[in-house]
Design a protein that fits this description.
The protein is α+β, with helices and mostly antiparallel strands. The protein has 7 helices and 11 strands. Helix 2 packs across helix 4. The longest helix has 26 residues. The two termini are 30 Å apart.
Amino acid sequence: MGSGPPTYDAEPTQLPAADPDGLDDLVPDSVLDGARYGSSTLRAVSVRGDSARYRGVPRRDALLTARFGTGEEALVLVAMATGARATPGAHRAAAEACRWIGRAVGRSHGRLAEDIRAARRGDLKSGLHRLTDRSLGKLRASAAEQGVEPEDYTASLRCLLLTADPECRTRVFFGVGDGGLFRLRDGEWQDIEPRPGDATGEPVVGFGSLPHETPEGDRLTMDLGITTPPSPYEPAPAPPRAPFRFRASVARPGDTLLLCTGGLADPLRGEPDLCEHLTTRWSTGGPPGLAAFLADTQVRVKGYADDRTAAAVWEA
């Protein structure tokens, strides 16, 4: 799609250089995953861009999909990160960012799942902001240990949370950095990427203005978007360089929610034909299989050759 044929070949040409003593550092060209929980079907993919394939460099994008807990109490996390452009350790920084946020969410998954089901938007925003700050702080600490500048060992980080409870349709996005959050509803694409510091979105069920306390008796305080230390004895983590983004909203039956890095967000915003193509593919027939989802997200657009990482959730 676009004004002409893409510059690079459609398939990988060169493999990235390998170190025999660092084979665990290799990154596959593509990863693909999927699952079905409650009323939602998940598809996730991360693909090396045409430019990186041509130059024989690793994919800068990283993808983590994980389930914490069991049964209807389970919490599903999708985390995606993009390392800094033109830096040697970009792929390692992205993978490390996903691992740190995965550990943080996993250790708090019980409370997070409870907050999602109870629609505690303020608690979720402040808590996830703190977990994100801590994770990116650990990434900066890792840069210092390696003797590299924090600007050269950093990553954007974008995450999606959903519970396995079929009665809960609240979907939570949070993260730092560029990318896109889109929703396909009634055959139309909506760009619902939150503005920095914006906690709005469609009201969570039971929400108008925030009450003073929840039905369970939990006191709610005004959320000013300010991170606080986890205890009086631990200093607040340094804030991330890019602003924190958060959105919690309720999905409707038939919705498709798409979270992606800039490699797919940019052509979606810049090439209407790509939006039309995906609308045709995803509006009928239910969720695609893994191979079909890979093909859909790999549709090539002239002028866009970056890595693409995406997670889509179809609502039954």
